[in-house]
C-alpha cells in the first residue's frame, strides 16, 4: 500500500496546513482502506464502528514521522505473520485468564486517574487524588513513589495482554475466522492491518475488564495525546462515567490531532483550544478553565521569590525541538529567525541581564550557538550557565544520567531542579518571551509581561487558531523593543488574565467540578 508508506508533507505550506492535510489524509485512509476490516471487528465486539475508526486514526497518526515525512508502516510478510501470532496469543490468553479469574464484588470509584507512566505525574495529581476516599490509580508502567502519600487509593498496574473480560465470551470461533481473514487481506493489500487490530483489541479487552470490576464516575488523565475513544466508550457504557484531560501544553498542531474527551480542563476560560482540537479531528464536549496544575505542583513561591540567582531583566523560555519543527520549512525558518531576534534584542539592550532558560530536553545545537555568538544572552540549562558543547556534556548530560537514578527514588519531583527550575526563573523575571512555550500563559497568569514571538506572522503550530492569544503575540522586532521599553516605565496595558490562565488553586477548581459531576451521577 504505497500511498500510506510514501506520504510526504508539503514543505512549502505552513505548519497548520500541513497538519490539516495529514488529518484529512488519515481520515480518508481509515474510511477507504480499513472500513471492511473494522466493520467485521465492530460486529464481533459489538462496539460502534465509529469508535473503532476514531481509535484507528490515532494509531495511524502515531505512526507518522514528521522529520522524514513518512509513515512507519513498512510492509513485511514476516512481520505480518508475527503480529498474527500476537493476535492469536491475545485470543488464547482469554481462555487461560478466564479460568484464573476470581469472582469479586465490583468496586465503586468516585475518581480514577489513568495511564500514569512517570513519577512526576502521580505527584502532580496528589492533591486531587487525596480528596477522594474511593479513588483508583492505574499505572501504565512501574514507577517509584511514596505509597504512604496515596494510601487512600487503590493502585493497579495495567498488564496489557494478561487481562480477561466478558468481551470475548462465546466469540472465540468468530475471532479465529476473523484473524485468518485479516491475515489474508494484509498480504493481499500489502498493509499490516494487525497493527490496528491488535491495539484496538487489547485496548477493548483492557477497558472492558477495568470497568467490569470498577464502577467509575469520573476518569482523569494527563495530556491531550493520551485520550482514547475506546476507553471513553466503555466508561460510558459500563459506568455512565465522564472522561477528562488536563491541559499541560498548548494545542500545538503536530501533537493535537484526534483528541477525544468529554472535558478538557484548560488553563484559561476560552473556547479556542476546544475549537482547534475539533478542527484537527478531535471530539470535545466542553472545556473548563482551571489554571495550571503543573505550575501549582512545581512552583514553591516561598522558596523561589526574590532569589537573585534566578533574576533576569528579560527571560527567554526555550521549547522542546520535536515534531512541530519539521511540519514545514516556514516553521523551522521562523524559529531560527526568532533566535536572530534574540541576538538583536541583546545588542539593543546591552546592560540588561538576559537569560535563555532552555527546555529540560534541550539538545546542544551548534547552529544555535553560532546564531547567538557575541551576544550577552546567558544560556541556562537546568540551573547552570552553559557556554559550549563541552560544558553541556559535563554539566548537563552527566546530571541527566544521575537524575535517571534519582527519579527511581520515591521523592516528589517538585524538589528536582530539572522539573521546577524554569518556574523559579519565571517568578523572578521582569519581561518574558518564547517561541511557543506554554509557560507564557502561566507567566501572564502570574501578572508578568509575557509574549510569544512569531517572526513575520507566519503560521505557528503553537499559536495558530488560538485567537485569544493575539494580543500576546509579537510579530515585528520593533514592537518587541517598544514593549520592553514600556515595561521599564510600567506602561504595559493591563488585560484580563482569566481567559489566559486562571489564578487560584487548580486542584480545588478541578475537584469542585468533579464533585458536581459525582453529585449528579
Explain what you see.
- This protein is of the alpha/beta class and 521 residues long.
- The chain contains 20 helices and 16 strands.
- A 7-stranded parallel β-sheet has the order 5-4-3-6-7-8-9, with helices on both faces. It has a 7-stranded mixed β-sheet with strand order 13-12-11-10-14-15-16.
- Helix 3 runs antiparallel to helix 8 (172-189), helix 4 crosses helix 9 and helix 5 packs antiparallel against helix 8.
- The two termini are 47 Å apart.
Task: Record the SSE blueprint.
Layout: H1 2-5, H2 15-33, H3 35-45, H4 49-61, E1 64-65, E2 70-71, H5 77-100, E3 107-116, H6 119-124, H7 126-129, E4 135-139, E5 153-157, H8 172-189, H9 194-213, E6 214-222, H10 229-239, E7 242-246, E8 260-266, H11 272-279, E9 283-289, H12 293-298, H13 301-304, E10 312-317, H14 329-348, E11 354-357, H15 366-371, E12 377-381, E13 384-385, H16 389-406, H17 417-427, E14 429-434, H18 439-445, E15 449-453, E16 473-474, H19 477-488, H20 506-519
Parallel strand pairs: 3-4, 3-6, 4-5, 6-7, 7-8, 8-9, 10-11, 10-14, 11-12, 14-15, 15-16
Antiparallel strand pairs: 1-2, 12-13
